[in-house]
Design brief:
Keywords: CBS domain. It comes from Roseiflexus castenholzii (strain DSM 13941 / HLO8). By secondary structure, the protein is of the alpha+beta class. It folds into two domains: 131 residues, CBS-domain (Roll), CATH 3.10.580.10; 81 residues, no CATH class. It contains five helices and nine strands. Strand 1 and strand 2 form a beta hairpin. It starts with 22 loop residues before the first helix and ends in a 31-residue tail after the last strand.
Length: 225
């Protein structure tokens, strides 16, 4: 694990929010993306992080508020009031072992990855390290074979599995049955799709093979990134 870089296993680009984001918006985003933490960024710099634990802690243990009153309260409180301000971070060139040690030391489940200028360029979590451990233990090449690499035909961004905004679990092209996504880089809808069964190479040419207008390249296992 010490020979594996954080950059090779982090999810990028990171999903971030502004300090003015409400708790309700943060909660909805976590549920939509199926994630547990959101870095808080202001003027391009990391100023905090909010987790599902922070959201739970913001809820009073004993309250007479109804569900709707509580939801209305979440719509008024911003994340800057509840976020963790002293964020433990890591650099992309650090080893995955360093990331694991930091998570163990600080009892946290994820680390924002920042560049030399303090900008958030990704995030690495316990799940990423578990996948790395499985890859090493099974003798496979140390890469995330379970998450396909996709190329957005609109902006050309190379994205990994969690860099995709899944519109809905049921949003599938009626013809090719691929799940439809939105590129997290350019926000272009219907520009990429994800294989449903196995990460073997497949290409769908926009307007010819499929009416959902996608261009997909999933890397074969062991292919160079």
């Amino acid at each position: 694990m010490k020979n594996q870089r954080v950059a090779d296993w982090m999810s990028t680009p990171a999903i971030v929010i502004a300090p003015t984001t409400t708790l309700a918006e943060a909660q909805r985003l976590m549920e939509q993306r199926r994630i547990r933490r959101l870095p808080v960024v202001e003027n391009g710099k990391l100023i905090g992080i909010i987790t599902r634990g922070d959201l739970r802690a913001a809820q009073p243990a004993d309250t007479t508020l109804s569900y709707y009153e509580w939801r209305a309260l979440l719509d008024r409180v911003t994340v800057v009031e509840c976020m963790t301000r002293h964020v433990v971070t890591i650099t992309p060139d650090a080893s995955a072992l360093d990331a694991a040690r930091l998570m163990l030391t600080y009892k946290i489940g994820g680390l924002p990855v920042v560049d030399d200028e303090g900008r958030v360029i990704g995030i690495i979590t316990e799940s990423d390290l578990f996948r790395l451990q499985i890859a090493l233990a099974t003798g496979g090449e140390a890469r995330d074979a379970e998450r396909p690499t996709l190329i957005c035909h609109h902006c050309g961004a190379v994205l990994r599995g969690r860099s995709l905004d899944t519109i809905s679990r049921d949003d599938q092209c009626w013809r090719c049955h691929y799940h439809l996504h939105r590129c997290d880089n350019c926000r272009y809808f219907d520009s990429i799709a994800c294989m449903l069964d196995r990460p073997e190479r497949h290409t769908a040419i926009p307007g010819r093979d499929c009416p959902c207008f996608v261009y997909l390249v999933t890397q074969e296992q062991g292919a160079e990134r």
